[in-house]
Amino acid sequence: MTPPPRDLTTGPIGRNLLLFALPILGGNVAQSLNGSVNAVWIGRFLGEDALTAAANANNIMFFLIGSVFGIGMAATILIGQSMGARDTAQARRVMGSSATFFIGLSVLIAAAGWWLARHLLHWMGTPPAALPLAEAYLRVIFLAMPALYAFAFLSAALRGAGDSRTPFRFLVLAVAMDVAFNPLLIFGIGPFPRLGIAGSAWATLLSQGLALAGLLLYLRHRRHVLWLGRKDAALLRPDLRIVRALVVKGVPMGLQMVLISLAMIAMMTMVNGFGTATAAAYGAALQLWTYVQMPAMAIGAACSSMAAQNVGARRWDRVESTAWTGVLCNFLLTGALIAPLILLDRWTLALFLPAGSESVEIARHLNHIAVWSFLFFGVTFVLSGVIRSTGAVIPPLLILVASLWGIRVPFAELLQPRLDADAIWWSFPVSAICAMLMSLAYYRWGRWRQARMLAPADGVAVPAEVPAQPPAPVADTGDIGGSLGSGRA
């Protein structure tokens, strides 16, 4: 008998939200640490050219993965709404169409990337000394794309079904194998060939492939409600309405990641104009901020999945409670990270800067000004996750565009003659507060509750309009499906 998935439409919201968000947060931390460890192996033992090569190739990889982030989120919401509506047949149709779409897309990217790797690196201006190394690394990374995309898609689908623990377990397994395979394949230890920098990419391919195989076997063994076997082959035929929803709703969500990356590049360009010491200080602060923003991102993803199920179940009272509980959790978890980073910043920033460097004091100064912005960023991320759970994906995108390109970048640029580098640091909290206020306003007065991921004829139970009063609580009809044990700005 299939064990039941987690029902996010019943039970205490705060407890369920934290239990759901913590594995996503743990997965984000594990991936960041994995990247850091791999950079140590390459940089310390293969040299600066190899590290430059890996950095250039990884930029392409992160862009490609980020570009499908939104489509994965769309699949999460579609499956979540279906599970909340107790429509497992629709959830399985979404699963089949989405799987075919993701696998087909990843194979096309892998094939094109293999032939275009050198051209892509040329277009990025990769230094000539690092170009052959980067090409060797990137070609293997493109071979790994089908496994990377498939694993990301399955993780998103499981989160939509109410499970964040299973993707976390297999992600930790992938990270552990990646860390172990790196030295073995780089240096040719034991029976393994000596592959140099390409060995690091092969470690990624092997670890992702094995983790993906393990996850598929687990779903098959557990007879998971989302598992599609040979008898379900018809479900793998793409449903054009579902594919259209994945693209139309997913592209704006993915575009947000692209706009964030471009804004960070614009900020880095301005910082570079103040010299090496300031740029190094900013780089050190960014290392810390990578971790500071993770709780908000994890809680936002958890809120989106939880809200999607409750939208499907027409539990608008729980959608509302999910939003405000997520905001509270953001303040607690993000604040718990910011406080020690302020109090101990002399030591934490010194981890990334040479002893006695003038950059340490510059980094402390900018950190004191800017790090608080992640509290407000978290509110925006949480509310955007809830708003997107109905299919309203354009307003969060417009809020992001306004806050980054209408406020942050112009503020930093135009006020530099008066404030010097402080204009850049103050642009972070100013834009974050504005984004939070816009998100709160749209959450309160916007028409996101009337949005749909799919038209009613497509079978997803999304109400045409919000009832004037929250409906009576749905009786606990019992769990369905299978038992289930996670976005870098």
TrEMBL record:
Keywords assigned by UniProt, alphabetized: Cell membrane, Membrane, Transmembrane, Transmembrane helix, Transport
Localization, UniProt: Cell inner membrane
Pfam families membership: MatE (PF01554)
Keyword Metal-binding among record annotations: no
InterPro entries in the cross-refs: MATE_fam, MdtK-like, Membrane_Transporter-Flippase
NCBIfam families: matE
Protein name (database record): MATE family efflux transporter
